[in-house]
Amino acid sequence: MALSISHASVLFTATVLTLLLAPTPINCWRPWPHLKPNSSDLLYDSSKKYEGSSEFVHLRYHMGPVLTGNITVHIIWYGRWEKPQKKIIREFINSISAVNARPPSVSGWWRTVQLYTDQTGANISHTVQLGQEKNDRFYSHGKSLTRLSIQSVIKSAVTAKSKPLPTNPRNGLYLLLTSADVYVQDFCGQVCGFHYFTFPSIVGYTLPYAWVGNSAKLCPGVCAYPFSVPKYIPGLKALKSPNSDVGVDGMISVIAHEIAELATNPLVNAWYAGQDPSYPVEIADLCEGIYGTGGGGSYTGQMLMDHDGSTFNMHGIRRKYLVQWVWNHFKNYCSGPNALDQ
Question: Residue 78: beta bridge partners?
């Protein structure tokens, strides 16, 4: 099904702007500054049942499109990025559909996302591939972006005179990644990333997109947790990141979170919990902070340790990653790669 949106009334436009500009409050755990839990809360909190399951969660399908065709992820690198950083992220995206990765694998995690269907019964695609890329290394829209100016960055990328990104509303996803010296509206205080769709009035097309920021300089203790911990939580030790880059390793789980939700809810009218689309609770929101068996509340769950002491829970093609689990609507609990989700 083509992803499209009609030009409607002024009321509709106002509603869409409300959806875009209003931050989405999620009742799942990340060490946001306003919560300030103590270290014992992190170790022993058990406010949720098995792997985040809850009889109060009512995720349902609202009849909108999901991404059933082969998914292509086009990346916009905004700001200054090092080659090794780009490689970590590219290899993660290429790992989503990999068939030869050692279990527990990123592709095993994606199989839960594939369970979701559209109104015809078609499942979300197995294939997620890396598409074209665009570098915006000179900060074309400055170092402080709003949610609306993010759409202007995407417009610049798809309308550039030299090598513009292709416009593929049906199966293309647009991933805007901001470097560690860029601030985005609500970053660190309420969000580490978000997804939505572009407005034809700004971009010229309706394109599903996500933004994720590198938090290494601004708030690693929030958005790169557990590879960094907030200063206001005494006694809690940060875990070693699997690819030796705290900011980028922290981004990986957020990127996974947003791609899973873009696939299942690209126009914010498909799979989500709650009655108000202004505040949708989606399949990754329901498992925020859960990385392994036993996770719930503010406990991350059981994870794996590599020979060098780094922490991970999934294998990619050539690397290891820490990726949060996603909600399995059909079993009513958070689910990870098959080898860990038993």
Answer: 136, 178
Kindly report, residue by residue over 97-155, the tens digit of the pLDDT: 998 899 999 999 999 999 999 999 999 999 999 999 999 999 999 999 999 999 999 99
Q: What does the alpha-carbon distance between residue 26 and residue 158 come to, in Å, rounded to a whole number?
A: 32
Going 189 to 190 to 196 to 198, the CA torsion angle's sign is negative
Token code pair at residue 189: 């205080």
| pTM as predicted | 0.86
First to last CA, the chain: 34
Other CB atoms within a 10 A radius of the CB of residue 23 amount to 13
Question: Could you tell me the sign of the dihedral formed by the alpha carbons of 300, 305, 309, 311, in that order?
Answer: negative
Q: Which residues contact 245 (CB under 8 A, 6 or more apart)?
A: 84, 85, 88, 216
- Measured distance CA(228)–CA(221) in Å, rounded: 5
